[in-house]
Amino acid sequence: MDVASRVDGSLVLSADTVVTIDGEILGKPSGRDNAIRMLGKLSGREHHVYTAVCVIDQVKGKVKEGLERTAVSFKPLTATEIQAYVDREDVLDKAGAYAIQGFASVFIPAISGSYSNVMGLPLALVYELLYAA
Prior knowledge:
Layout: E1 11-21, E2 24-26, H1 32-42, E3 46-57, E4 62-73, H2 79-88, E5 110-112, H3 115-119, H4 123-132
Helix pairs in contact: 1-2
């Protein structure tokens, strides 16, 4: 809504992604130690990735919102694997401290749901909201 308030006659798309496990929301890690803690928590377990999407069509005066959920399974990770991954990729700007489209893909044997959601923008949902807007 903030961006939409600064433009006129536009189509505004926003999205935000979080990872959840055991009722805890894992956003972007605050530092290396936090990233290591997050990945340790995900190790050998299933977690969920949620992305909220909002489309504002100022011309039509419509607001459409949606939420995508994807289950992601991680293989068990050693402390060495976690540290090497955190050293290898910039994980500080990633919810849950990983990017499925990067090297972390080798840690993920299965997902149930939208792959693009785990990347941070669920394309099928975005298309549906744009079409409905």
